[in-house]
Amino acid sequence: MAWLLAPLYDPIMAGVERSCLARWRSELLKEARGSVLEIGAGTGVNLQHYPEGLTRMVLLEPDPGMRRQLVSKSSHLSNVEFCEEPSEALPFDSGTFDTVVSTLVLCTAPDPGKSLCEIKRVLRPGGQLLFIEHVLAHESPRYAAWQRRLEPLWKRCAGGCHLTRDTERALIESGFELTQVTRERMRKSLPLIAPTIRGCASVAG
Questions:
Q1: What's this model's pTM, rounded to 2 decimal places?
Q2: CA atoms within 13 A on the CB side of 47
Q3: How far apart are CA 200 and CA 170, in angstroms?
Q4: SS3 state at 111
């Protein structure tokens, strides 16, 4: 299904972007600094929200269909590097980046705990992970129950996306310190993926 999802992703998400996601991305990514790695950069929707003056930008996207769109949208940028490796095995030395960005990515990662450990490894002491992720609906047992019931079918239709990830807990278990967390529902999205968390997690200096 991934080959079909790539060209449809931006049109499917257009209403959500207008409603809330574009603002969330802008507010979050203005905090990016220094050398930046974005995992699961997808079709490049974050590119317009990064501040000027970054010293390095690496865009990681393993999916070929998504990556074609990403490269096309990045053609006007001079300081962008591309990476095809999975987030569970980042091909970078420890302490390489000041900022790592993950927006709607960890839901699809085959092993999010391993991805987070790799992110922590490649961040410098004092580095930051900026994230937006849809998560399990802890605040509503009814929604959470439906997420669990429908997740097997959803994964097949949505490129491996999980509905029941507890990303906040995974961050803490991976050794990150949550310095900023906002819990909010994505407007104009399907109820199953509406619960989200976003914010900043840091690596102890």
A1: 0.94
A2: 21
A3: 14
A4: coil
Sheet holding 195-202, edge to edge: 80-83, 56-60, 35-39, 97-103, 123-134, 195-202, 177-185
- At 83, which amino acid appears? C
- Determine whether 43 is exposed, middle or buried from the number of CB atoms within 10 Å of its CB (0-12, 13-18, 19+): buried
DSSP of 161-173, one letter per residue?
--S---HHHHHHH
Structure tokens at 144: 């959470």
pLDDT, tens digit, 9 for 90 and up, residues 177-186: 999 999 999 9
Strand partners, 99: 36, 128
> Are the C-beta atoms of residues 82 and 25 closer than 8 Å to each other?
no
Helices (runs of H) and strands (runs of E) counted in the chain: 6, 7
More confident residue, 132 or 13: 132
- The rounded distance, in Å, linking the Cα atoms of 141 and 121 is 35
